[in-house]
Every structure is written in structure tokens, then in C-alpha cells.
Design goal:
about 150 residues, mainly alpha, two-stranded antiparallel sheet, 4 helices, 2 strands, binds zinc ion
């Protein structure tokens, strides 16, 4: 153990790293791949990897909210074509941002959060009676986006 481990900022042990050479999963605390022996990323890079995962999961969650809303509106509400299209299109944009975030996490998280919050505000202004529809999902989406912003900009 020649490396200086900063205990306070060490990521959780149950999270796993994928070896870049053989793709096998290793324990987060390992220094070398247990399969091929290749050196695993250092702690600074591991934190970046973790933050990236948080960001990607958040965008996937928000995409999920819009796809769920689309399915819900389609099956259980007599939603207009416009509302259906809006949820579907935003869900697809979020899916694109999810893949984009692998290379460019900051602009992806920024765009996803901006779009999500912007649409919430817009719908609250245009249809104030719908503010409390799916409020738990909306709040969860806000908390998760803020967490994503903190993890890639913090
Ligand atoms: Zn390996």
C-alpha cells in the first residue's frame, strides 16, 4: 500500500469498478484487478467515476418520470395528443442526455435539470390545478437533479 488513501473521502466499498482491460468487476477498495492484475483507477478518478454514475442515474430517473407520465396519460387519462407527445419527446431527450452524459456529464446534467425544472414551472403556470399531480415524483426528480448537479459541479 504505497498510495495515500484519504479515508474521509473514500467511496463506499460495496460499489464496484469495472476493469478497463478485461471488463471484470473488482471491489471498489482494490488497487489491482482481481482477474488480470491491471492497475485500477486511483481515488481521484474513482470519485469522478462515482459522481458520473450519480449523474447518469439521475438523468435515467428523470427520463423514467416522463416515460411513466406518458404511459399513465395514455392509459388512464384522456390526455390530449399534445400532452402525450410532450412527455414522450422529453423522455426521449432525457434518454439522449443520458448517453451524452457519459462523455459530457456537466452540460448533460445542466440541460436535463434545466429542462425538468423549466417544464415543472411552465406547467405550474399554465395549469395550476395540476401542480399536485404526481407531486412525489416531481419532488423526487428535483432532489435527484440537485444531487446530480452537486456531484458533477461540486
Ligand atoms: Zn482486469
Amino acid at each position: 500500500m504505497t498510495r495515500a488513501f484519504r479515508k474521509t473521502s473514500s467511496p463506499k466499498k460495496e460499489q464496484q469498478l469495472t476493469c478497463r482491460k478485461c471488463r471484470k468487476k473488482s471491489d471498489f477498495a482494490d488497487e489491482y484487478c482481481s482477474n488480470c492484475g491491471k492497475e485500477l483507477p486511483d481515488w481521484e478518478n474513482r470519485r469522478t467515476i462515482l459522481n458520473l454514475r450519480v449523474a447518469q442515474n439521475s438523468i435515467a430517473f428523470i427520463a423514467g418520470i416522463f416515460f411513466l407520465s406518458f404511459i399513465w396519460a395514455f392509459l388512464f387519462e384522456k390526455a390530449s395528443l399534445l400532452i402525450l407527445a410532450e412527455n414522450l419527446v422529453v423522455g426521449l431527450i432525457m434518454t439522449v442526455l443520458f448517453f451524452y452524459s457519459k462523455k459530457f456529464p456537466r452540460p448533460a446534467v445542466f440541460t436535463a435539470t434545466g429542462l425538468f425544472v423549466g417544464l415543472l414551472v411552465l406547467s405550474a403556470i399554465l395549469n395550476p390545478e395540476t401542480i399536485f399531480q404526481g407531486i412525489i415524483l416531481k419532488l423526487a426528480g428535483i432532489v435527484i437533479s440537485l444531487n446530480a448537479i452537486r456531484s458533477v459541479f461540486g
